[in-house]
Amino acid sequence: MGTRLKLSVLAAAALLSATAAQAQSAGTLLARIGATQIAPDVTSGDLSAPAFAGTKADIKSDTQLTGGATWMWSDEISIDVPLALGFTHDIVGAGAIAGVGKIGEVKALPVTLLMQYRFGDARSMIRPYVGIGPTYAKFYKARTTAALTALTGGSPSNPTTMSVESKWAATVQLGVSVAVNSKWAIDASVLKTKLSTRTTLSTGQTLDAKLDPLSISVGVSYAY
Questions:
Q1: Cβ pair 107, 139 in contact under 8 A
Q2: Residue-wise pLDDT tens digits, 109-150
């Protein structure tokens, strides 16, 4: 009886491994939904004159519902497009103005195309992968606060406004997919984007900063 049970367990494991492989075989389309946190790793320059020496800025993280689509070009190579509705990042004072709090906010929509390589056999339940590709970071709907207006010599009737330049950047990815069955899988990944941009105020002042965001995504995928 014990031998039969062992054989049954081994057969079930083999069947599960075989069916799980179908979810990441060549020609398969994977649809994904989950959540992503984007955490900028900011290195801020100084706000250009006229400004207090050492006037800098920091950008806070944001978490949103996200999705994505992955097409398996082969058993090992896939093309992935992360999808999102956008993120809202608070901009706060740093350096000489670290105590002023929030000075603005900006919406960001990262548009990324990744080429991925998946390790292991297509029948593996656990498949680590790496990815690389371009990102277009679209910044829009930048808003300022009364604190920034006061710091830059504006007034309630003539507030200081700002814009943040959209930029192209390179993104690298490290992730893992764990098959639950032939259709469903759990997916987790970390992305690092080398991104720099410039913020321009209505006063003519500018501030350059490296954002270099780290993105962490967790979700579930379904194979078609």
A1: yes
A2: 999 999 999 999 888 899 999 999 999 999 999 999 999 999
CA 181 remoteness from chain centre = 27
Please state, in angstroms and rounded to a whole number, the distance separating the CA atoms of residues 145 and 147: 5
Tokens of 70: 């992955």
pLDDT, residue 73, reads: 97
In degrees and rounded to multiples of 5, residue 76 shows phi and psi of: -110, -30
For residue 155, the surrounding DSSP H or E stretch is: none
CA 14/CA 194 separation, integer angstroms: 42
Beta bridge partners of 173: 131, 191
What are 159's two structure tokens?
A: 């507030």
d(CA 211, CA 124) in angstroms, rounded, equals 37
Distance in angstroms (rounded) separating the CA atoms of residues 8 and 11 = 5
Looking at residue 194, what is its pLDDT? 98
The tokens for 194 are: 């080398």
Give CA–CA dist 213/192, Å, rounded: 6
Backbone angles phi, psi at 13, to 5 degrees: -65, -40
- The pair of three-digit structure tokens given for residue 109, joined into one six-digit string: 């929509």
Task: Retrieve residue 192's tokens.
Answer: 């690092």
pLDDT at residue number 21: 45
pLDDT attached to residue 2: 52
What is the model's pTM?
Answer: 0.88
Helix (H) or strand (E) holding 16: helix 2-21
Q: CA-CA distance, 180 to 143, in Å (whole number)?
A: 44
Mean pLDDT of the chain: 91
Q: How far is CA 71 from CA 90, 120, 124, 177, in A?
A: 34, 17, 18, 14
